[in-house]
């Protein structure tokens, strides 16, 4: 999987994060080299990231980032008709945002390694109800060709376990063809049977054509 460096601004749009939600503890699950945690901390917010890749060590991650950025850009160029640029404005602006986010991540993980947990779904090293908001970007559903419905159910159940608020997952389409995940409706039925409340919500962000909704999940009151 490609390690991406998405920015704080992208996260706010992808997950429709309001100012009030920045007052709680936020977990970026599958954070990769995102700048979200670093930029949130600079604003006084409390955020953590989890990703099994953090176990590789900072130097290995940094060596990998340039190749992954180039690979991601090549994939976009090869499938140009599947992307829209309204939110970014131009490829150059997107690239600058990613490079700035990568720099923020690299500096922050060296300075505050305790904010980056070397763990991956469907197991998180956190207590029940220990964070206010869980964000999961471009992992679930994006990689549905690799992870089946059972894995998705276990992953969402685990994120819901550690959250005392809401879990937000974006996007709801597969990588590559951009098509909706065929098991999403059945998965939501299973999650509701498990006592979780699920809803699809439009967000003010679209890059993959048609990928403008997130899934929200919370425990039933």
What does this molecule look like?
The structure is a single chain. The protein is α/β, with parallel strands linked by helices. It has a single domain (8-219), classed as Vaccinia Virus protein VP39 (Rossmann fold, 3-Layer(aba) Sandwich). The protein has 6 helices and 7 strands. It has helices spanning 8-14, 36-42, 58-78, 91-111, 149-162, 184-193, and strands at 25-29, 46-50, 116-117, 131-137, 163-170, 196-202, 213-219. It has a 7-stranded mixed β-sheet, with helices on both faces. α2 (36-42) crosses α4. It is globular and about 45 Å long.
Mean pLDDT: 93
Tell me about the largest β-sheet: 7 strands, mixed
Uncertain stretches: none
Distance between the termini: 36 Å
Q: Indicate the percent of residues in helices.
A: 25-40%
Q: What is the ordering of alpha helices and beta strands?
A: HEHEHHEEHEHEE
| Beta-strand residue fraction | 15-25%
CATH superfamily: Vaccinia Virus protein VP39
CATH class: Alpha Beta
Number of helices: 6
Q: What's the alpha carbon Rg, rounded to whole Å?
A: 16 Å
Question: Architecture in CATH?
Answer: 3-Layer(aba) Sandwich
Please, how many domains? 1
| Order of strands, widest sheet | 3-2-1-4-5-7-6
CATH topology: Rossmann fold
Number of β-strand runs: 7
The outline comes out as globular
Structural classification: alpha/beta
